Amino acid sequence: MNGKHITKLGFERKAIGLALAAATARMGAGLDRGAVLDELRAVQADPAAYLAGGVYAELAVELGAQKAITESKKGAALLPAPLPYGVWGADLIEPGARAQMDVAMRLPITRAGALMPDAHVGYGLPIGGVLATENAVIPYGVGVDIGCFPAETLIPLLDGQTSPISGLIGRGLTVYACTPSGKIVAAKAAAKQTRKNALLVQIELDNGQTIRCTPDHRFMLRNGSYLAAEQLYPGTSLMPFYSDRDRDGDVRIQQNHSGRMQKAHWMVARSGLMGEVPRFDGQRTVIHHRDFDEANNDPGNLEFMGDRSHSAYHRSLVERNTMWQLPEFESRRVAALAAKAATPEGHAYFAERGTKNLMAFIEANPGKLSQLARDGGNGVRGMKVLTSDHPAILATRQAVAACPECGREIKSFIGMNRHRKWKHGYNHRVISVTHLDEVADVYCLTVPGYDNFALAAGVFVHNCSMRLSVFAMQPDALKLEEAKTLLLKHTRFGAGVAFEKREREDHEVLHEGTWDDQPILGHLFEKAAAQIGSSGSGNHFAEFGTLTLAQADLGLEAGQYLALLSHSGSRGFGAQVAGHFTTLAERLHPNIDPAAKKLAWLSLDSEEGQAYWQAMNLAGRYALANHELIHARLARALGVGVLASVHNSHNLAWKQNVNGQELIVHRKGATPADRGQLGLIPGSMADPGFVVRGRGQADALASASHGAGRQLGRKAAASKLVRKEVAAYLKERGVTLMGGGIDEAPQAYKRIEDVIARQTDLVDVVAQFTPKVVRMDSGSEDI
After folding, report:
1. What confidence tens digit (pLDDT) does each residue in 539-572 have?
2. Which of 136, 248, 387, 621 has CA atoms 20 to 30 A from the CA of 601?
3. pLDDT tens-digit series, residues 268-277
4. DSSP assignment of 700-756, as one string?
């Protein structure tokens, strides 16, 4: 049998080679040509019946993909009338945007939609449009999911308790976080519900723990980078979280960057949550637990004291509580310890503690082993070992060997074990990742400054990334000239702007293996690396201003704070990804109605659709990285901590459960607003923006506007607006502008107060941000 026989059956492209290989195998098994041709016809007629396995499985997969593409081409005709969709703020929306949305609602893949009050004409889908499609994604309509955990997920807290994540909402809390180097710190956090009815995956770890979360939630790897849950694979080594109790009852935390155990109360102090560490004349500084519970290391329970003062304080307690001195109390204490030692768990505890103490003494005091044996009254067997100064241990202790992973020379087998364990992470590995056929309401923490937190399962995970940063400063503490200098020095704007190699910053997103999975991603990597941490042109901005909280929220007290708000995206990398795949989608739908040409879609059952979904998600993570670097630079330059942060994405697509069905929800310039979910709705360069909390309105596909929305196009603004009037508007509101073309003037946008008023059933306002010093690009290109 040869390729001609296969081609005559109607096989095309890659399927020809697969069919020929399968036919050759079957004929080698003894079947004649006629029988094999009949089998090929059967596979061709019903590929799904052969997917389970066997010689035709790979051919069946390819035929299924080709069939999906063919059917999508046949289904390119638009529906005769648009499906119904909700409109918010109809009086604010121009007719052109309504016309574009009507076309989108006629696509054969469309299942639901909504139009936000900031909507205006865009490419394909109107900006401010929300569109839900079935098993298809539109490159010019476009995501990243908001990764989170179900309600019962346990979080270890610094107060010594372990709490379900859903029970932390509204509480002030301190959690364990980790730097990329593996240094574990204490950090303030706030909890919130992020989504409802989210699909889940289950991660099984080699420490016997299982974790359920959304497929995209990022886990911290042993090298300090992150990987989404669904991208983890067996053997992936995660950043571990270990804690134990020492003989004094103090909680100790394993510092992964050094392999050493650190007392948790000193970790809290070194994290800066207790203020500056004081000195006491003639005394060593110690930390006192106010409630005498060594497990409660919440900053509010800790107090600095001098060591002698601390000892005197405890002696005074003993003197006041005379029962502690009675023989009866001591006998009960000894009896309790003996009873504990009689249990398997207690015996193991004391044996491990004794072994650690003994080995620590041996390493620190090799010449005092005989004295230890005599003074300690060791048994006969132990006496023989210790009085000989244990030459085997001493020889091993002095031996030097090269680590098989990195080649570093390590002294002693104990040191080698510790080095390999903590530097190369051969524990806390992933056993399996399973996609679950269930949904749940999910929750997450916001951890300003670190963007990750520990799970009780023993690993660190990323928090929900956000990009309004609230600083530990009063608004008037930052003077005008200093604010201008900081923005000019630490931000970059422009469509083609890039950093020189010596200036470039690193970020975990640049180390993902995803860049090597597709030729286009590899081709665009250098551009992405050069532009990371910068902003584009058009409506991209970075601005200092005042955040006003009318009541306590975001983990903050009511009042005013200095804040930084930025708008940036995935730069030229994201734009070229969208352009490349839109061109591909248009080629796959040559007969699509011209009115819907920019809405050409890719089936997620096709190779092209999966490639775009992967590239789109990478672009989303890259956009977040730009924000993270911009805000980190400015926070370092200010020299203050970040008290809270908020972020939301738009111009993306999400997998979302809509009326019991998983659909692809495109938000083209719209904000995710699930119940309890925080978001940002900025105004203009001189008008306020708002931090909002979503209400999960189903008819709006849990969405809200992403800004005020334009009322004048760029060309119209440039021709109609008068620069003197724009300058007067800025001066009246006390706004200093650096850059910013006339096409971005406040008068080119709708009144943000009107837009917010039209969506009170979609979001609740949490705080107001008033811009004061604004930097934008001076060009007019909108990327």
Report:
1. 788 999 999 999 988 878 899 999 999 987 777 7
2. 621
3. 999 888 988 9
4. GTSEEESSS-BSS-HHHHHHH--HHHHHHHHHHTT-EEES--GGG-GGGB--HHHHH
* Beta-sheet strand order (sheet of 127-133): 86-87, 110-120, 127-133, 661-668, 652-658
- 622 in Cβ contact with 573 (< 8 Å): yes
Is residue 264 packed enough to be buried (19+ CB in 10 Å), middle (13-18) or exposed (0-12)?
A: buried
Rounded CA-CA distance 765/750 in Å is: 18
The tokens describing 670, both together, are 């719209």
What gap in Å lies between CA 567 and CA 681, rounded to an integer?
A: 11
pLDDT, residue 779, reads 53
Alpha helices, DSSP H only, in 204-343? 264-270, 307-320, 327-342
First to last CA, the chain: 54
Query: Strands 162-164, 541-549: parallel, antiparallel or unpaired by DSSP?
Result: unpaired
DSSP states of 531-570? HTT---STT-EEEEEEEEESSSBTTB-SEEEEEEEEE---
Confidence of residue 323 (pLDDT cuts 50, 70, 90): low
pTM of the predicted structure, to 2 decimals: 0.59
Tell me the C-alpha distance between 443 and 70, whole Å: 40
User: Buried b vs exposed e over 378-388: b needs ≥16 C-beta within 10 Å?
Assistant: beeeeeeebee
Residues 6+ apart with CB under 8 A from 746: 683, 684, 685, 686, 687, 726, 729, 730
* 648 touches 679 (CB < 8 A): yes
List the structure tokens of 115. 């139009």
